[in-house]
């Protein structure tokens, strides 16, 4: 042993032995799996956390390191959308489940998802000028436990105790989240770490949403980072079937909104729009608006008993900030995407009622597709199915929450078309030169 | 010479995986075997995509470089979110490999005082056995620059080592050797 050892020698001596080797058969499996994937010209910045969080990956939007500059202007990052992202098609749902009870029986589905043969035509009222539209980054909360406490306090959860919890997504992927369990209710933050619950797992995202459930509720909590709709189909209880007046619902919910504001829970960079109501369910929905005043697909939602006690609520924790503006399609130009996307079919997608829809169809019965109004039909041959021509009469701008590769999220603009058959269609409003769709894995 | 693209990947994977696995296990301690598998597969994903970019004769170093980038990306994201998750994070979430495996406090202190770049090149050389050429591939610099950077990092380690008081533990050297 030297009297004064050289630190580099010490360092070399401290090299840890590694006993682990990947089994050859396991390595072969990996190689087969990896080499079966198509080689992309514009590779995604995939990370190991993403793969681990496969539930999240299903709804992910990845940002490719591709910059596009047109006309000498500043370069913009091209968005690469996850394979599950819907570019065009029927309006599906708000990302936040508005109710734990069955509202399906009193609402019209937005879209039947069975219009493979529809041909969409833009009406004369659609704008033909192509604007630039903002894209917003959605920032998860910096301190999940404090935000959780604030939600619990704001909604009157008594003696809440904070817990980190490991939940499992639909694919069995473990995800770390947190809850505040009180004596009367539970507040849950959407699972925010898709890299697993074990020590050393890396996070993919902070929590973006919260959910309140009265204790004893049998409705499921959001179980994935995408917080996609998990419509609870429990039959309404007797008390829920009794309908409160809109004035009552507005009064009850406005108190809670004020309380959430006092506790700093209403997302920074967003405002609440005018409330809407769903028939027969005592649900109040406040749309979240971007700083530009446009509606998003996110809501603060509250459901009450006939006595005015809160049964269920959900909302956003995240704040938003402007990324930049992107060239967009005109309203008329967006119609073409409905054809390019396979006629806007959303196979396997949920059939969710449009918030605020008031028409009553088949009360008490199963959810059924909306009847399709055919404005004209074209028969090309005996073997070709009928093609229905649907006129898109008007368009509104709305912002849709999509996920980024790094686990954060963005609000991107989309056009919501009102069609002559009463069905809503949506397309991503960004100029297609500025996004791509990831090939399915 | 492997024929198809898949054969080339298989050949590359078989030759480089032991070194990549060791690198990941040493640098991202404590990682479960399943996590190492996941990371290795991610390295293979990158290799598959960039198979034509793999430099001949420096394949293993290139693969270690890919693994290093993946780890760095993961750490950057982790750092960004660390404050957010601090209250809920499991204990030991931030521990680095060096903290766990270097028993000699004087050496650990000296390493801690170095820049991340210095620490990295020293570990790549003394732990992974990469020479200047391989270091150049991993760090995307010339072999000459890598040699210079390594030499300077070693000098700074020695300086820092001397500045840190001895613990008086005569067995420190042997204890470190035994890790």
Structure, described:
The complex is a heterodimer of chains A (441) and B (179). Chain A has 441 residues and is an alpha+beta fold. Chain A has helices spanning 7-13, 24-35, 48-52, 54-57, 144-154, 238-241, 246-262, 335-340, and strands spanning 60-68, 76-81, 88-90, 118-122, 132-139, 161-168, 174-181, 185-193, 209-214, 271-272, 276-278, 283-289, 295-304, 310-316, 319-327, 377-378, 387-404, 409-419, 424-428, 435-437. Chain A folds into two domains: 86-94 and 107-136 and 325-434, no CATH class; 137-323, no CATH class. Chain A has eight helices and 20 strands. Chain A has a 20-stranded mixed beta sheet that branches. The longest helix of chain A is centred in the middle third of the chain and has 17 residues, at 246-262. Chain A is globular, with a radius of gyration of 24 Å. In chain A, 47% of the residues are buried. Chain B is mostly helical and 179 residues long. Chain B has helices at 5-27, 33-49, 59-85, 97-101, 105-113, 116-126, 132-139, 143-163, 172-177. In chain B, α1 crosses α2 (33-49), α2 (33-49) crosses α3 and α6 (116-126) packs across α8. Chains A and B meet through α1, α2, α3 and α5 of A and α1, α2, α3, α5 and α6 of B.
């Amino acid at each position: 042993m030297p009297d004064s050892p050289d630190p580099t020698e010490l360092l070399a001596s401290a090299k840890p032995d590694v006993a682990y080797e990947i089994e050859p058969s396991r390595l072969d499996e990996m190689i087969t799996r990896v080499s079966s994937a198509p080689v992309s010209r514009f590779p995604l910045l995939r990370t190991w956390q993403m793969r681990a969080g496969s539930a999240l990956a299903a709804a992910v939007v990845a940002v490719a390191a591709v910059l596009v500059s047109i006309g000498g202007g500043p370069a913009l990052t091209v968005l690469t959308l996850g394979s599950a992202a819907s570019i065009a098609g029927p309006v599906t749902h708000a990302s936040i489940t508005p109710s734990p009870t069955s509202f399906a029986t009193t609402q019209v589905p937005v879209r039947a998802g069975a219009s493979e043969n529809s041909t969409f035509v833009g009406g004369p009222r659609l704008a033909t000028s192509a604007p630039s539209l903002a894209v917003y980054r959605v920032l998860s909360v910096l301190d999940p436990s404090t935000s959780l406490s604030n939600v619990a306090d704001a909604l009157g959860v008594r003696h809440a105790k904070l817990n980190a919890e490991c939940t499992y997504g639909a694919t069995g992927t473990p995800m770390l989240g947190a809850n505040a369990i009180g004596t009367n209710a539970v507040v849950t933050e959407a699972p925010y770490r898709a890299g697993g619950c074990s020590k050393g797992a890396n996070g993919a995202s902070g929590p973006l949403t919260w959910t309140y459930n009265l204790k004893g509720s049998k409705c499921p909590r959001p179980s994935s980072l995408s917080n996609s709709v998990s419509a609870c189909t429990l039959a309404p209880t007797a008390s829920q079937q009794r309908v409160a007046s809109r004035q009552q619902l507005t009064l009850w919910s406005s108190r809670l909104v004020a309380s959430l504001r006092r506790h700093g829970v209403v997302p920074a960079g967003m405002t609440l729009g005018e409330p809407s109501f769903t028939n027969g369910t005592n649900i109040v929905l406040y749309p979240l608006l971007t700083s530009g005043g446009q509606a998003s697909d996110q809501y603060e939602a509250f459901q009450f008993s006939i006595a005015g006690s809160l049964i269920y609520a959900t909302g956003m924790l995240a704040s938003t900030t402007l990324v930049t503006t992107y060239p967009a399609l005109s309203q008329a130009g967006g119609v073409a995407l409905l054809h390019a996307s396979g006629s806007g079919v959303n196979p396997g997608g949920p059939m969710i009622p449009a918030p605020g829809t008031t028409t009553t169809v088949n009360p008490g019965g199963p959810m059924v597709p909306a009847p399709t109004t055919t404005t004209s039909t074209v028969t090309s041959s005996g073997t070709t199915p009928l093609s229905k021509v649907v006129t898109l009469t008007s368009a509104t701008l709305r912002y849709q929450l999509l996920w980024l590769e790094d686990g954060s999220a963005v609000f991107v603009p989309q056009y919501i078309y009102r069609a002559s058959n009463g069905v809503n269609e949506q397309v991503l409003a960004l100029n297609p030169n500025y996004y791509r769709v990831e090939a399915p894995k | 010479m492997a024929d198809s693209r898949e054969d080339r990947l298989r050949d590359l994977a078989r030759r480089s995986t032991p070194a990549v696995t060791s690198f990941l296990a040493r640098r991202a301690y404590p990682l479960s075997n399943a996590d190492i598998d996941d990371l290795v597969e991610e390295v293979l994903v990158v290799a598959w995509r960039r198979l034509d970019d793999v430099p001949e004769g420096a394949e293993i170093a290139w693969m270690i470089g890919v693994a290093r980038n993946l780890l760095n990306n993961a750490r950057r994201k982790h750092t960004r979110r660390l404050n957010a998750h601090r209250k809920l994070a499991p204990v030991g979430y931030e521990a680095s490999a060096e903290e766990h495996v270097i028993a000699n406090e004087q050496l650990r202190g000296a390493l801690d005082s170095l820049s991340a770049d210095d620490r990295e090149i020293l570990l790549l050389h003394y732990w992974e056995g990469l020479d200047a050429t391989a270091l150049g591939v991993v760090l995307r610099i010339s072999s000459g620059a890598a040699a210079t950077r390594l030499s300077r990092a070693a000098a700074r380690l020695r300086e820092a080592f001397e500045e840190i008081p001895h613990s008086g533990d005569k067995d420190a050297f042997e204890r470190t050797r035994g890790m």
